[in-house]
Amino acid sequence: MSTNTDKDAINHLLTRGVENIYPSFDYLEARLNEGKQLTLYLGIDPTGPDLHLGHAIPLRKMAEFQKLGHKLILLIGDFTAMIGDPTDKSATRVQQTREQVLANAAKYKEQASKIISFEGENAAELKYNSEWLAKLGFTDVVELASNFTVQQMLERDMFEKRIAEGKPVHLHEFLYPLMQAYDSVAMDVDGEIGGNDQTFNMLAGRDLMKSLKGKEKFVITSKLLTDPTGKKMGKSEGNMITLSDTPDDVFGKVMSWTDGMIIPGFEILTDLPNGEIKEMKIAMGDGVNPRDFKVKLAAEVVATFFDRATGDAAVDRFNKLFQEHAVPEDVPEVKLEGAMSIVDALVATKLAQSKGDARRLIDGGGVKVNEEVVTSYDFVVDPAMSPLLQKGKRHFARIV
């Protein structure tokens, strides 16, 4: 199958949101200019029930390849997830059962479909690495392991840090990059895409492809969106937008990001032209209030994962709620009987996950009843008065 070799499209593919390209920019540019279909994959271990923005970034890069006519594979690491990727971990991951892993992966294809296509002439494929990894015998594993050295494995920063701190590094954690490397060999791919935190694992696959097949495998590492502490935004950190979030939740979470995340967010999560992003960066540097740019970013992110009309509607609701201080028209109603404390009411309406969470919200001044801030745990809520409960600026519930 021939592919699109448009110069501008290829340059955008190789530069926008890209951290590094292995073996080089020139190598991959030349391969893309040949006009031959390449096969590449993104591997995701199902360690949680939802895909998130950390997955969306390389998925968006995959979508660019698909639009140019290249073949995509979304690989579910149902086998490797049971081992546990040690990347960025200061302690050994808790291993999961196969049942847990498959339950987590149940919605991945549906969520990934918001970004890449599994239909049509050039449909993406969905594969599971247990198909080949579960069949490897001990002899096979020993032979694969002979392609790597202990020194290579110890080059991983998290292993060096743990050893220096006297923390254990388990043998099965050394096997994780070996298993991920074999994925490339089993699928005989031309390339792999992933976050820059996966560089070690992806390059292990490149090494194994050279050793076992005498074939070069390109690797693209994408930039990560990090929070103010420098941590990547993901499941483990508990600060991530998931692809199962509602449009309003996505919008609100983007609005909670720091100003320093606005420009990187535009670069890796939207299709806005580079020139427009550069103009916004200059304007912010000149002292223009970044709030409006953040609203635009939130709308663009919603539009990316839903559609333009949904993004525009989210902006309208945000403006009514924050600028006009209006109560949403679709406030959920919760039927309760008898008067109760505000702590119990917050839990009953699911505005708080627990009584402890409810108390923390009250202590932080984040709870209102009928637009009045609640300061006491003993504040009484009476369903007969149909009170309006509010958590923060955008979460409401009316008790009836």
Automatic annotation (TrEMBL):
Its EC number is 6.1.1.1. It holds the Pfam family tRNA-synt_1b. It catalyses: tRNA(Tyr) + L-tyrosine + ATP = L-tyrosyl-tRNA(Tyr) + AMP + diphosphate + H(+). GO terms for molecular function: ATP binding; RNA binding; tyrosine-tRNA ligase activity. This is Tyrosine--tRNA ligase. Belongs to the class-I aminoacyl-tRNA synthetase family. Keywords: Aminoacyl-tRNA synthetase, ATP-binding, Ligase, Nucleotide-binding, Protein biosynthesis, RNA-binding. It comes from Candidatus Uhrbacteria bacterium RIFOXYB2_FULL_45_11. GO terms for biological process: tyrosyl-tRNA aminoacylation. It is an enzyme of class 6 (ligase). Residues 329-386 form the Tyrosine--tRNA ligase SYY-like C-terminal domain. InterPro entries: aa-tRNA-synth_I_CS, aa-tRNA-synth_Ic, Rossmann-like_a/b/a_fold, S4_RNA-bd_sf, SYY-like_C, Tyr-tRNA-ligase, Tyr-tRNA-ligase_bac-type. One of its GO terms (cellular component) is cytosol.
